[in-house]
Design brief:
Elements (H helix, E strand, L loop, with lengths): L1 H34 L2 H18 L3 E8 L5 E10 L9 E10 L1 H5 L2 E10 L2 E4 L7 H5 L22 E18 L15 E14 L4 E12 L5 E11 L4 E9 L3 E10 L8 H7 L1 E11 L1 H7 L10 E10 L2 E11 L2 E10 L7 E11 L1 H7 L15 E10 L2 E10 L2 E10 L5 E12 L12 E11 L6 E13 L2 E13 L2 E9 L4 E11 L2 E13 L13 E12 L7 E8 L2 E3 L2 E3 L2 E7 L7 E7 L2 E7 L3 H22 L24 E9 L2 H7 L11 E8 L5
Parallel strand pairs: 4-6, 5-6
Antiparallel strand pairs: 1-2, 2-3, 3-4, 3-5, 6-7, 7-8, 8-9, 9-10, 10-11, 11-12, 12-13, 13-14, 14-15, 15-16, 16-17, 17-18, 18-19, 19-20, 20-21, 21-22, 22-23, 23-24, 24-25, 25-26, 26-27, 27-28, 27-29, 28-31, 29-30, 31-32, 32-33, 33-34, 34-35
């Protein structure tokens, strides 16, 4: 009896359950069929737009919804308008296929599980100094949320969330009009258009969290050197973290691969600027490269290397104290590796401490760096050049301690630089067998330096002040040995004072003097002596014969060019030798008076001859007069002696004075020959002449008469 009762109960249970399931399925089927009706779809459109418009400040409009609801919805002709923007929608699209979550629908939330947008158009513009896109998708501070128990009619959907494992954008367009001030360095056209936008994303948007996986984003950038844009990576943000993971951005002129993290950052709050100032950062840059043309937009002085700049970077910290764990920059085979610390990045107390772990320069990049010097010598000797050291400073000053090593010698340098007005500086350097030949104008002769130099001063113009000390030993200057060279320089009040000593074993040179500006005209004054100087080491004027000269010299000149030059020069030569010949003590003195005098006079006296030249001592005038009368003489020669048969007879420089040129030249010359045999010791090709003679000459010339 008991089992029969149990059997009947079990039978009625399944009948009841089946009936309930059937009723439920019938109701569900009825609801699904009901949803397909146009009035219901219109109601859904209304509720979706109301939910969006209450959550965001923008206004959503949808023409109609189709598809097999509630599984797949096809939204046709949608648009989003920003508040206060009357020029057009910020976003519009032809069709969007949407899949929603049933479970969230039962909870009165609209959760999008997939979305495919066809031909979307985003038009960006500024409205009252604010981007229209930001206005449209900014969440309202207070959102109306009515529960089922509150009076009034509650909305169908309490919140709009997006969970889209597969979000696709097909053939989109993005425009930016002239109101958006793009950085001029980017060299982008204005207005800017990005077309052929195609993207595949994973997107999740909730009330306090945003996650986007950009699996593949591409676009064309017409009328630009960038040509195209490709993007991949992941973006995550909640109320604590903002992360960019494994991002890769590529165009025709650069490729950027990086990851970054900032915390605490809440993008859904309004105090973003303050959040970013207080946040902690971690960032990593890897396998990134930039063409020289792109870098020149931001760094006009960046050299035009043929190879791109490749970068790697790892850093962490805050804007108050940021640590650069590693920074590496490569151009072909040249590289820079450094680490450092930066503090107070956003204020005037910014400071940095950089450890230059290694810098390697190869010839190709070195030639580019020195191209403006037109250096033609081979730079292979610097192929393994390295630089190491430290740099410390802030916005007001810089201090350095660097060491340079090359296959052609090395040097170390430390110094300070203060960016004040005027600029102040100090530098000390030690050179160890450093070959600087490729950097000099004459690269056919070797120059190798050993020694030290120190300099300090302030300012960089004519009114600056500086002092310098140089000391070189056992060096080579333009293929000539230099046992020692010591120089002291001091410049102040537009006057340079110098003192130097040099020796090449056994020759010695000592000199001191001044250079100054008098009424903006340079003035030079110098005096000194030489001992046991062998001229054959520096010139072949005496052939291969050795020489030994000792004596003193002095000079004083003033003038800005050859026309205004005046002053004096004096040489006193002790008994000297040239080869097997002994020269008696002799001297040379010459002076020329100021151009302010009506008649200028050039006087010279020496052990060889004495003389005086007075009159119109203007080199440019005398050259023009000589050329004018040379042309006249050649013309008479061709016409009267050669009868015009030799037309090729001419001079390199001819000037014919025009009729309006009334200049004239007048010269008086006196020469007294004294010891031409002594002069022949200096000029071996001079004919053997023994004579004492006087010569007087006068010359007057203008355009018409000679």
């Amino acid at each position: 009896m008991f089992y029969r009762l149990l059997y009947k109960l079990w039978k009625y249970f399944w009948i009841t359950l089946g009936t309930l399931v059937g009723v439920f399925l019938a109701i569900a089927l009825f609801i699904i069929v009901l949803i397909q009706l146009p009035p219901i779809q219109s109601y859904i459109v209304s509720e979706v737009t109301v939910t969006f418009n209450e959550q965001f400040e923008g206004e959503l409009e949808i023409e109609r919804i189709g598809g097999f609801l509630p599984f797949v919805a096809e939204v046709h002709n949608g648009r989003v308008d920003a508040p206060g923007d009357t020029t057009g929608p910020v976003l519009r699209f032809k069709k969007a296929s949407v899949s929603v979550s049933w479970w969230e629908l039962l909870r009165q939330n609209l959760t999008v599980s997939s979305l495919e947008i066809t031909e979307p158009v985003v038009d960006l513009r500024m409205i009252d100094d604010e981007l229209n896109f930001d206005r449209a998708f900014r969440q309202r501070i207070e959102r109306r949320e009515l529960s089922l128990t509150e009076p009034g009619t509650p909305p169908l959907f309490q919140r709009l969330d997006i969970f889209a494992p597969f979000l696709s954008v097909l053939d989109g367009v993005l425009t930016m009009d002239e109101s958006i001030d793009l950085p001029s360095e980017m060299r982008l056209p204005s207005p800017l258009t990005l077309d052929e936008i195609n993207a595949t994303l994973f997107l999740e948007v909730t009330e306090s969290q945003l996650f986007a996986d950009f699996m593949n984003v591409s676009a064309a950038i017409p009328d630009s050197e960038y040509r195209f844009l490709q993007l991949q990576g992941q973006f995550f943000s909640d109320d604590v973290y903002m992360e960019l993971n494994r991002f890769r951005v590529a165009t025709e002129v650069f490729e950027l691969a990086f990851s970054a993290e900032a915390t605490p950052i809440d993008l859904f709050q309004y105090n973003l600027a303050e959040q970013f100032r207080q946040a902690e950062y971690r960032a990593e840059l890897r396998e990134s490269s930039f063409s020289s043309s792109f870098l020149n937009h931001y760094l006009p002085a960046y050299p035009g290397f043929e190879s791109p700049l490749e970068l790697e970077l790892s850093l962490e910290g805050t804007l108050s104290e940021l640590f650069v764990d590693r920074f590496q920059a490569n151009v072909n085979q040249s590289a820079v590796i450094l680490s450092g610390r930066l503090t107070d990045l956003l204020n005037e107390q910014l400071a940095y401490s950089i450890l230059l772990e290694n810098m390697v320069l190869n010839p190709g990049e070195l030639r580019t760096l020195t191209a403006e010097r037109a250096i033609t010598a081979s730079l292979e000797q610097y192929e393994l050049s390295t630089v190491r050291g430290e740099l410390n400073g802030n916005l007001d000053s810089l201090s350095t301690d660097l060491r340079f090593n090359t296959e052609a010698g090395s040097f170390s340098m430390d110094g300070d630089l203060a960016f004040a007005d005027p600029l102040r500086y100090r530098v000390n350097a030690v050179l160890d067998s450093l070959d600087i030949t490729p950097f000099l104008q004459d690269t056919s002769a070797t120059t190798i330096l050993n020694g030290e130099l120190a300099a300090s001063g302030s300012g960089t113009d004519r009114d600056s002040d500086f002092s310098a000390e140089l000391g070189f030993t056992n060096s080579v200057l333009f293929n000539r040995p230099l046992s020692s060279f010591i120089a002291d320089l001091s410049y102040s009040g537009r006057e340079l004072t110098y003192r130097l000593q040099a020796s090449d074993d056994p020759g010695e040179l000592e000199a001191d003097g001044t250079w100054s500006l008098v009424n903006d005209n340079p003035r030079i004054s110098t005096q000194g002596l030489v001992r046991n100087l062998d001229v054959s080491r520096y010139s072949d004027i005496f052939g291969e014969e050795n020489s030994d000269f000792s004596g003193t010299f002095s000079a004083s000149f003033q003038g800005s060019d050859i026309e205004t030059l005046f002053g004096r020069i004096s040489l006193e030569i002790d008994e000297s030798t040239i080869g097997a010949d002994t020269l008696r003590a002799h001297q040379l003195y010459a002076d020329i008076n100021s151009p302010d005098n009506e008649t200028r006079t050039l006087r010279f006296t020496s052990s060889f001859f004495d003389g005086e030249l007075s009159g119109t001592l203007s080199p440019s005038l005398l050259q023009d007069m000589g050329s004018h009368w040379a042309e006249y003489s050649l013309q008479r020669l061709r016409e009267e002696l050669l009868f015009g048969f030799d037309d090729e007879l001419t001079l390199d420089r001819l000037v014919t004075l025009d009729e309006e040129d009334d200049r004239g030249a007048e010269l008086a010359l006196q020469i007294y020959m004294k010891d031409l045999e002594l002069l022949r010791k200096y000029i071996p090709n001079l004919p053997e002449i023994k004579s004492r003679a006087r010569m007087n000459a006068n010359l007057q010339a203008d355009r018409e008469r000679l």
